[in-house]
Amino acid sequence: MLVTALSPVIGYDKASKIAHRAMDEDTTLKQAALASGWIDEKAFDQIVDAKKMVSSYWNTEADLNLEEQSDLILAFARVLYINGQSTDETLSAAERLGGIFGLRSVMLPRWGELQLQAEDRHTRLCCLVAADPSGVNMDRVAATMRAMEDLHAGRLGPGQAMEAIRSISEAAPAPAWLFTIAAAVGAVALAVLFGVRHFPAGALIFASVATGAMVRRSLAHYSSNIFLQPFCAALLAGIIGALAVRYQLSSALRLVAVCPCMVLVPGPAVLNGALDLIQSRIHLGAARLIHACP
Q: How is domain 66-151 classified at the architecture level of CATH?
């Protein structure tokens, strides 16, 4: 419970790791926090006050009404939905959260929104939240699933859970340099599977994909249009393909033309779209695939 006070400062993911480390190594929370290097002793003492936290816990953990419970369920489901979790897993998570509160709940996913129908013994409520499933951030998904486990196990109360999910939703994505390198290395590995065996070809693929990745991250700072990034990647791919033809590179090297586009076709979006189609969520599945493969 005390570790949740650290979440607004170092993020829920790190706070959760500190808590688990303290339990695994049978040490105090303070020792685990200081050993992590994410916070110093002075800051820890200022943030974590056991008496204050216990008092705050019982004040904030008073029974939530149906609307507050629904808001919490939607908050968790939204983070999963917009960051690459499958629709089935998102619906299952919402159902489990509803069970924690003793609610009968049904989640209705659509492109652009999540709708929750929740019912307790006395009241029925329908609410929705805007949610475009166009992103991929599996770190946020993993942190959200850990927070759900903590909530289910009683290590996290509803009040702290809302703070935790807010912290997770605001967590920064992977650094641009890491994304660029990972995309480029992944593309080279994929090219090898397709038969590229020469170093010049691999180097050209690495450079083109790295450029495509940097274009993607750069555009994300200036526009939220979900089609702008794929369009620019396709333009870059066309330029590279034209140069490959102009200088009469081998047929294998001409495959480099598709590399910047491949960077911008997120695997989870394609997979989730296919799964939605299998589950007869035709509109959602088609929307996911159209977004992933413009």
A: 2-Layer Sandwich (3.30)
